[in-house]
Amino acid sequence: MGLKEKLQSDLTDAIRSRDELKSGTIRMVLSAITNEEVAGKEARVLSDEEIITVLSREAKKRREAADAFADAGRADKAEQEKLEGEFITTYLPAQLSDAELDALIAEAISSTGAAGPADMGKVMGVLKPKIAGKADGGKVSSAVKAALAK
Question: So what's the architecture of 3-89 in CATH?
Fold first, then answer.
Protein backbone atom coordinates (compact mmCIF):
# COMPACT_ATOMS: atom_id res chain seq x y z
CA MET A 1 0.00 0.00 0.00
CA GLY A 2 1.39 3.37 -1.01
CA LEU A 3 1.51 6.38 1.26
CA LYS A 4 -1.45 8.09 -0.42
CA GLU A 5 -3.58 4.96 -0.08
CA LYS A 6 -2.60 4.70 3.59
CA LEU A 7 -3.65 8.32 4.12
CA GLN A 8 -7.00 7.68 2.43
CA SER A 9 -7.56 4.54 4.52
CA ASP A 10 -6.65 6.42 7.71
CA LEU A 11 -9.05 9.21 6.71
CA THR A 12 -11.89 6.70 6.49
CA ASP A 13 -10.98 5.30 9.91
CA ALA A 14 -10.75 8.80 11.43
CA ILE A 15 -14.14 9.77 10.03
CA ARG A 16 -15.71 6.58 11.38
CA SER A 17 -14.23 7.18 14.82
CA ARG A 18 -15.28 10.88 14.65
CA ASP A 19 -11.72 12.08 15.29
CA GLU A 20 -11.94 15.69 14.11
CA LEU A 21 -8.20 16.42 14.43
CA LYS A 22 -7.07 13.42 12.39
CA SER A 23 -9.77 13.65 9.74
CA GLY A 24 -9.28 17.40 9.25
CA THR A 25 -5.50 17.09 9.11
CA ILE A 26 -5.55 14.17 6.66
CA ARG A 27 -8.03 16.06 4.46
CA MET A 28 -5.67 19.05 4.35
CA VAL A 29 -2.69 16.83 3.54
CA LEU A 30 -4.58 14.95 0.80
CA SER A 31 -5.66 18.30 -0.62
CA ALA A 32 -2.03 19.47 -0.71
CA ILE A 33 -1.02 16.21 -2.44
CA THR A 34 -3.79 16.62 -5.01
CA ASN A 35 -2.78 20.24 -5.64
CA GLU A 36 0.78 19.09 -6.24
CA GLU A 37 -0.43 16.36 -8.61
CA VAL A 38 -2.40 18.76 -10.79
CA ALA A 39 0.15 21.59 -10.70
CA GLY A 40 2.04 22.15 -13.91
CA LYS A 41 1.07 21.44 -17.48
CA GLU A 42 0.04 17.83 -17.01
CA ALA A 43 -1.64 15.96 -14.15
CA ARG A 44 0.46 13.15 -12.68
CA VAL A 45 0.55 10.76 -9.76
CA LEU A 46 3.13 11.54 -7.09
CA SER A 47 5.61 8.91 -5.97
CA ASP A 48 5.98 8.14 -2.26
CA GLU A 49 9.19 10.25 -2.17
CA GLU A 50 7.32 13.23 -3.61
CA ILE A 51 4.48 12.69 -1.13
CA ILE A 52 7.04 12.69 1.70
CA THR A 53 8.28 16.06 0.42
CA VAL A 54 4.70 17.41 0.50
CA LEU A 55 4.19 15.99 4.01
CA SER A 56 7.44 17.58 5.20
CA ARG A 57 6.34 20.93 3.79
CA GLU A 58 2.93 20.65 5.46
CA ALA A 59 4.49 19.71 8.82
CA LYS A 60 6.84 22.69 8.56
CA LYS A 61 3.87 24.99 7.84
CA ARG A 62 2.17 23.73 11.00
CA ARG A 63 5.29 24.30 13.13
CA GLU A 64 5.67 27.84 11.79
CA ALA A 65 1.96 28.58 12.28
CA ALA A 66 2.10 27.25 15.84
CA ASP A 67 5.03 29.58 16.58
CA ALA A 68 3.22 32.53 15.02
CA PHE A 69 0.03 31.87 17.01
CA ALA A 70 2.03 31.43 20.21
CA ASP A 71 3.80 34.75 19.60
CA ALA A 72 0.41 36.41 19.02
CA GLY A 73 -0.94 35.05 22.31
CA ARG A 74 -3.34 32.56 20.71
CA ALA A 75 -2.42 29.49 22.73
CA ASP A 76 -5.53 27.56 21.63
CA LYS A 77 -4.72 27.92 17.91
CA ALA A 78 -1.02 27.30 18.57
CA GLU A 79 -1.86 24.01 20.28
CA GLN A 80 -4.14 22.97 17.40
CA GLU A 81 -1.40 23.65 14.82
CA LYS A 82 1.17 21.86 16.97
CA LEU A 83 -1.04 18.77 17.24
CA GLU A 84 -1.66 18.77 13.49
CA GLY A 85 2.09 19.03 12.82
CA GLU A 86 2.86 16.17 15.20
CA PHE A 87 0.19 14.03 13.54
CA ILE A 88 1.62 14.72 10.07
CA THR A 89 5.10 13.69 11.23
CA THR A 90 3.78 10.21 12.04
CA TYR A 91 3.65 9.63 8.26
CA LEU A 92 7.22 10.82 7.72
CA PRO A 93 10.27 8.54 7.90
CA ALA A 94 12.16 8.44 11.18
CA GLN A 95 14.18 11.62 11.66
CA LEU A 96 17.96 11.41 11.60
CA SER A 97 19.77 11.79 14.89
CA ASP A 98 22.43 14.49 15.24
CA ALA A 99 25.20 11.86 15.04
CA GLU A 100 23.76 10.33 11.85
CA LEU A 101 23.36 13.78 10.33
CA ASP A 102 26.95 14.72 11.22
CA ALA A 103 28.21 11.49 9.64
CA LEU A 104 26.30 12.19 6.41
CA ILE A 105 27.63 15.75 6.33
CA ALA A 106 31.22 14.58 6.85
CA GLU A 107 30.81 12.01 4.08
CA ALA A 108 29.35 14.62 1.71
CA ILE A 109 32.15 17.08 2.45
CA SER A 110 34.84 14.48 1.79
CA SER A 111 33.17 13.20 -1.40
CA THR A 112 32.81 16.70 -2.86
CA GLY A 113 36.18 17.95 -1.67
CA ALA A 114 34.53 21.01 -0.15
CA ALA A 115 37.03 23.34 1.46
CA GLY A 116 34.99 26.22 2.81
CA PRO A 117 31.67 28.02 2.99
CA ALA A 118 31.79 28.77 -0.75
CA ASP A 119 31.33 25.03 -1.43
CA MET A 120 28.11 24.78 0.58
CA GLY A 121 25.99 24.35 -2.58
CA LYS A 122 27.98 21.28 -3.65
CA VAL A 123 27.60 19.66 -0.22
CA MET A 124 23.86 20.41 -0.03
CA GLY A 125 23.38 19.02 -3.53
CA VAL A 126 24.86 15.69 -2.45
CA LEU A 127 23.01 15.67 0.90
CA LYS A 128 19.52 16.61 -0.23
CA PRO A 129 18.52 13.24 -1.74
CA LYS A 130 19.93 11.38 1.28
CA ILE A 131 18.03 13.41 3.87
CA ALA A 132 14.72 14.02 2.07
CA GLY A 133 12.00 13.92 4.70
CA LYS A 134 14.40 12.69 7.36
CA ALA A 135 15.73 16.03 8.62
CA ASP A 136 14.70 19.68 8.65
CA GLY A 137 16.39 21.59 5.85
CA GLY A 138 17.22 24.58 8.06
CA LYS A 139 18.89 22.36 10.63
CA VAL A 140 20.92 20.60 7.92
CA SER A 141 21.93 23.90 6.34
CA SER A 142 23.20 25.35 9.62
CA ALA A 143 25.06 22.10 10.42
CA VAL A 144 26.75 22.13 7.00
CA LYS A 145 27.65 25.79 7.40
CA ALA A 146 29.20 25.06 10.81
CA ALA A 147 31.11 22.06 9.46
CA LEU A 148 32.51 24.04 6.52
CA ALA A 149 33.54 26.95 8.76
CA LYS A 150 35.91 24.68 10.73
Answer: Orthogonal Bundle (1.10)
